[in-house]
Amino acid sequence: MVQMMNFWKDLYYVTHRNMEKERNGTMKIIKLTVENFLKVVAVTIEPGSRDTVVISGKNGQGKSGVLNAIASALAGSKAQKLIEPIHKGKQRASITVETEELIITRTWTKNGTPGTLRVKDKKERQYASPQAFLDKIIGDLSFDPLAFARSTPKEQREALIKALGIDITSLDMEHNEAYGRRTVMNRMLKHHQAVIDKTGFQFDDVPDKPVDLKPVWDELKAAQMAHREYERIKDQVKAIQKNNDLAQKEIEARKKELITGGKLLRKAELKMEGMQKDLPDLDAIQAKVDEANTQNAKIAQAADFRAAVKARDAAKKESDDLTKALERIEKRKSVMMKNAKIPIKGLSFTNDGITFQGVPFSQISEAEKMRVSIAIAMTLNPDLRVISVNNASLLDDESLAMIESMAKDQGYQVWLEIVKPSEGGTGFVIEEGELVEAPGEGGSDA
Questions:
Q1: Domain annotation covers residue 324
Q2: CA distance 168 to 175
Q3: In this structure, are 145 and 201 located in the same domain?
Q4: Based on the structure, what is the number of domains in the chain?
Q5: Is 57 left (phi over 0), alpha (psi -120 to 50) or beta?
Q6: Are 376 and 149 in contact (CB under 8 A)?
Q7: Highest mean pLDDT (candidates 54-68, 193-207, 410-424)
Q8: What is the rounded CA–CA span in Å between residue 436 and residue 148?
Q9: Distance of CA 305 to CAs 254, 259, 302, 309, 313, Å?
Q10: What is the pLDDT of residues 133-192, one digit of tens each?
């Protein structure tokens, strides 16, 4: 037990050793006034010396509006963007946060705007650039320890990166570009592999150069012309034979024609006999053409196969290179986050989330989660020592006591939103947007 207490004391020391600034101490809220903001109609809260300030009430009564008012008044554009900050039916909303040194007022007369901000000190001196001044002294008021503790590892990692101001935008863009290119390469890889799988490896002995079809086509065309001429002469022989048959019937009348026809017939027959000997073999030539076409088809398939293999190998190389590039980007991210000044001792980043004392954050105890989350919130708000915890009703008595103890030990003011039970209540009770019950002076409401 003593060792654990010493460990947390050491954690607090590391967290807050650089918190003291040149200004006269750190600040807490001594008075909060909210009028016509969200569901809040009129609420004035003076925490006094309380370390924990409980805002309680039933759901939908304006509890969250009180906590939102603190961040909206102080953080400006960094706070949650509010489309309609002015209470329905009202013309104006205002929030005044008073600390030991400053009076900060933000006023809205129109929805959808950041409102008008005024900051002055207790001597009524106003700051010319109020938001720029507040940005220098106010940390991340939007950091909710309970929401952080209950987030997923990835959400916790992103929230902590954002809170610590680590800019990995360019690396994320580089990562997304490389990831997209690798996705395209992998798709091409699958496509080319499908072509390879479909065609197989039966083309290893196929030559690269296609067969030259021109000589074969010329031979085929010449053969076809010869056959057409042969058919023409053949038809001519038939016609002459027919005429001769007619002449035989009129042999006396057409003897001279018959003699002439006989001569012509003999001449044609001799020519036909001569041509028949030299007629090319059509079937053989057609077989050559078919063989050449078959060979060329194989060559084309082989070319497609080789091209697919080459494209697949190129896509795989590109994909592998992009994978290495992604790994380098993640390594650079890791180095950047490793070198980040994380003010919580034992807290570090991984690619998937964060760890504490080398253990994944999701695996540490609920008490440790809340301790670390509260410590982070304290680190992010070194000057204005105010922390907001929404939905604090989810915390058990031990966790609430731990928060109270940490707030007291480190000089912080923790505002807790708690749903009021049906009977009785605790802290500052809100009903229908107004404060209906306030606790007596004390150190805590929890």
A1: no
A2: 10
A3: no
A4: 2
A5: left
A6: no
A7: 54-68
A8: 31
A9: 74, 70, 5, 6, 12
A10: 888 877 666 677 878 888 888 888 888 887 777 777 788 788 888 889 999 999 999 988
| CA distance between the termini of the chain | 24
CB contact burial 360-386 (16+ within 10 A = b; e otherwise): ebeebeeebbbbbbbbbbbbbbbbbbb
Helices 255-278 and 214-249, packing angle to 10 deg: 160
Look up the domain containing 42 and give its range: 2-151+377-437
Q: What is the pLDDT of residues 365-389, one digit of tens each?
A: 888 888 888 888 888 888 888 998 9
* Residue 309 shares a structural domain with residue 258: yes
Residue partners of 33: CB distance under 8 A and separation at least 6: 43, 44, 94, 95, 96, 98
Q: Is the pLDDT of residue 11 over 50?
A: no
Asked if residue 19 is part of any domain, the answer here is yes
Structure tokens at 444: 């805590």
3 state SS of 48: coil
Q: What tokens were used for 178?
A: 């490389």
Looking at the fold, whether 132 and 214 belong to one and the same domain comes out as: no
Query: Is the residue at 398 inside a domain?
Result: yes
Q: Which residue has the higher pLDDT, 1 or 284?
A: 284
CATH number for the domain spanning 133: value is 3.40.50.300
Judged on CB neighbours under 10 Å (0-12, 13-18, 19+), 401 is: middle
